[in-house]
Amino acid sequence: MLAGMTTTDALPRTGRRSVQLTAASERMTLDPFIEVDWEIPIDDRAYHLPPEWLPLYGTDAWEAMTPEARITYSRHECAALCGAGIWFENRLMQLVLRHLAELPVHSPAHRYLLVEVADECRHSTMFGEYIRRAGTPAYGPSADAGELDALGDVPGKHTFGYVLILAVEELLDVINRATMKDDRIHPVSRDIAKLHVAEEARHVSFAKTYLTEVWPTLNEEERQGVQSLAPAAVAIVADLTIDPAVYEALGIIGGEEDARSNPHHRARVVQGLAKLTSFLQQLGVINDASMPTWRDLGLVA
Ligand SMILES: [Fe+2]
Ligand SMILES: [Fe+2]
Fold this sequence. Notes:
The chain is mainly alpha-helical. Helix content is 68%, strand content 0%. The chain has helices at 12-27, 32-35, 60-64, 67-102, 108-134, 147-150, 157-180, 187-214, 220-239, 244-250, 255-260, 263-283, 291-296.
């Protein structure tokens, strides 16, 4: 137990988990400027993401590329994913900081959530370093993605916020795990993915514990608020796996349309969201009434 902290909060399981996760962060907190070998040039010696995870994989545009062009394209997609990561982590930190402002300092979650914000700061620094060294444009989601900010002020807003956090973290986790295990991938990309998986495990654990404990305490209006907004929010998260600026930068005509209509990419997104969507079904955020919306948006099979 951390000094002066109790687990007698309104959410005792979340309190106990926060104590465990804070202790875990004391055992393992990773510095990207030690863990990642930035001396290795971020060049086109190898793929930067598994080819099967690239939005154009399997399309005519992909088939028309030389092996070298595919690798260059993967470097740009990896930089775009890092740019989306920075953008999302900024939003996630704001959600967590708003939650923190309402928590008493004696709550173990207060201490833990500051660890989470510090983790995200290091991750965004790491993603930024990758983009700067990869020599690509400064990719990042367009202003349209600001729709997510407008969704934040609803009944059950913290619950909604952690659903959003979990959506981003679970989707990135699947891509990061595929990247870190793949020996076709550039060593810097693999190191980044490995570091991110190791530290994000804490964040996923907190979000799942919090959501499981808080959901039964919500009133009907709050639950409906979360149930109705979650599919649109998760669709925005899924949509940011495609950045039109990549195709513009590389002169791939029709690339955005090809990526959006690529059945292979759509299936990968469903696969990447599977852990999230099965958890949300168990919780009751996805129910019989809302399932058709999730299907129509291409978020579940
Ligand atoms: Fe992160
Ligand atoms: Fe995270």
